[in-house]
Amino acid sequence: MSLWTRLLEGGKRLFDPDIAHDDDPREPGEIPCAPDPNDVGFTAAVVGLGAKLAKADGTVSDKEIMVFSRVFRAPPEEADNVRRVFNLARQTVRGYEGYARRIGRRYHDRPCLLEGVMDGLFQIAGADGVITQDELTYLQNVSEAFGFSEATFRRIKAAHMGPDRNDPYHVLGVAHDAEFGVIRAAYRRLMADHHPDRVIQMGAPREFEDAAHAKAAAITAAYAQIRTERGLLIRQDS
Description:
mainly alpha, 12 helices
């Protein structure tokens, strides 16, 4: 039985944000970027967040469902089931905050996993070429429910939507007047945390890989822009 069939069979029970799912204690020492094995409740919550986000601007487009399928790497033969699951979640969701709190509470000690969910949601929001203010508000509320700070959300947002007014400092999460050593340390830390190879090695689901590549490219571009603006591009970075 495929994951998508299991979600369909779970129906409203799985897509009810007020019902707790799979809250048993976890074994210690698990890889921090991966959800628990066979955690269908986690997947249902992510689907619920994606479906509710797709409707945040008033409509659910085919592009948004297609992007959801790509982000979460549903096989082509499951396309019809993915659409049914997505529509089921969209119709039965009463409020996305319950989904976000459920994921944030269960995986608060795995920020890499939570940020991967945020990356996927940003990709769904941008599927139709624009992220509306309603969608942005939704994303910020989910970020807060996950326990992320305002600065962290600003950094994630900048990696997907571009820096505010072409501001690379927001991508790296540093102040405009920060010493270059601080900027370099932030760049190296972010690349260490979000390099696609490391993200996968840490156990993140394979569906996070595309978003990790995009984020790493944004981080690298922001760092290069700051170095250029400060006249440091030709210097050895050590």
